[in-house]
Design goal:
Layout: H1 2-21, E1 23-27, E2 32-36, E3 41-46, E4 52-58, E5 62-67, E6 78-85, E7 88-92, E8 105-110
Antiparallel strand pairs: 1-2, 1-8, 2-3, 3-4, 4-5, 5-6, 6-7, 7-8
């Protein structure tokens, strides 16, 4: 019974984060723009990719990202630590190469 209560709290926490994530996010250095459009996919625009499609899945402290864009190449999803607080989003790509992203921590601000 206690397990169900904890699982429910964790699920509510992820749902809250998912709601905060929806919208447009611009990187601090202005190199990337992420458009989180649904509960499981987003689009990314940068200097060399325009509105390329990715999917994602949220966990307690990490986000799994997979490429689903126009190039139709087989890219396995990768998991990265992330945090979201007010209008700030941080995703740490330094642990593993994620297609379309630099191998470093990226900081984004939510566009209003």
């Amino acid at each position: 019974m206690v397990f169900i209560v904890f699982a429910g709290c964790s699920k509510d926490k992820i749902e809250t984060k998912r709601e905060k994530l929806l919208g447009t996010w611009v990187s601090i250095d202005k190199t990337d723009t992420l458009y989180f459009t649904t509960d499981d996919d987003f689009f990314k625009s940068s200097g060399y990719m325009i509105s390329d499609h990715f999917d994602y899945k949220l966990f307690d402290d990490s986000i799994e990202i997979g490429y689903r864009g126009r190039l139709y190449i087989l890219i396995y999803p990768t998991k990265h630590k992330y945090s979201i607080d007010n209008n700030n989003l941080v995703i740490d790509f330094s642990n593993k190469r994620c297609y379309g992203f630099p191998l470093k921590e990226m900081q984004y601000l939510k566009e209003k």
